[in-house]
Amino acid sequence: MPYRVMKESLNAVIDSLSDGILVTNELGRVILYNQKAEALLGITGNAALGQPVQDHIKNDVLVGLITKILTLNMPYHAEEVCLMDIGNTRLRVHINPVRDTNGLLVGSVSLLHDVAQLSAIDKIKSNFLAMVSHQLKSPLSSTLLQTSILLEEMVGGLNEKQRDLVQKVKAKIKGMTDMVNDILDVCMVEEGVYIAQIEPLNLSEILQRTIDLIQPQAQDKDIALQVTAEDNLPLMSGNKSSMEAMFINLISNAIKYTHSRGQVSIGLKKDAQHLQLKVSDTGIGIEEKDILRIFDKFYRARSEKTKHISGTGLGLSIVKGVVDAHRGSIYVESEVGKGTTFTVLLPLR
User: Fold this and answer.
1) Secondary structure E strands in the chain
2) CATH number of 107's domain
3) Residue range of the domain that includes 218
4) What pTM was estimated for this model as a whole?
5) Which of 89-98, 218-227, 229-238 comes out lowest in average pLDDT?
6) Which one of 70, 88, 114 terminates a domain?
7) Which site in 49, 56, 77, 198 is 20 to 30 Å from 263, CA atoms measured?
8) 25 or 196: which carries more pLDDT confidence?
9) Which residues, including other chains, have CB under 8 Å from residue 315's CB and lie 6 or more apart?
10) Do residue 337 and residue 206 come from a single domain?
């Protein structure tokens, strides 16, 4: 088949896609886009081809994300996912670096998906989940308190079998309570509640409080926590509650998926115009097929190594929501059997 015919056929296939596609080279110049991207981004004809992306894409967030992917040039898998409004359209944007066979960065590809209808459905689901969770939280908390009273023998003694049974009931209720709290956290992230109150934050202090809170969990598994934080880190603007939730979920997740007598390393430092949080573990690692979905709500990787690990599948979704709300980035590097590293970049401004 002649090259010209092949090119025309490829263009026809790309233009038939329901999602927008935008491709740049390593210098940030536009080299390809389809008709859906034209409509979503307001591009006219072929005017943008060969031109810097910022000259024709007027959405600063999208341009910033593409520029970040190209300039950071991270050596491991990187992906940006966020929700943004362009005119009356709400988009879910996936941006990935493009590398050649030698691993050299040659550009970026952005997938633009119109989620207006899905967002409406998600809002209905979120409102329903929030309502149900609020209704469950009070009776679960009350029942958890009552089981604690029984175990402390404040209303009479327990024999060994009774104590064992009540302890199992308490563990189940605790798991349900954690799930309800996670669902409420997700709902608050989606509603924007977590960034409604912004204040100057000292992430070093938040990290230290998180370590103090989570240390018993690490000690139960004989896991060493190695913490390093640069002195005199600048303050960042953000929401305190959401930052605490992000730290707790990232570090507790690392402990959960690390074998006994393993190690979890947490580092906090200033990186250019960002504060960088890095959480590394020596755990079971994440398979490549699961990396693209680990931030999805309720998604949990299923394998022989994870089937005995409890969890709601919401922790990393909360982390991603908090990072997106603060216009940050999160990257994942993992090797099965050796461990996982999460790197979070939070803008200082």
Assistant:
1) 20-25, 30-33, 80-86, 89-99, 105-114, 199-201, 224-229, 236-238, 263-271, 274-281, 329-335, 339-347
2) 3.30.450.20
3) 197-347
4) 0.56
5) 89-98
6) 114
7) 77
8) 25
9) 182, 249, 252, 253
10) yes
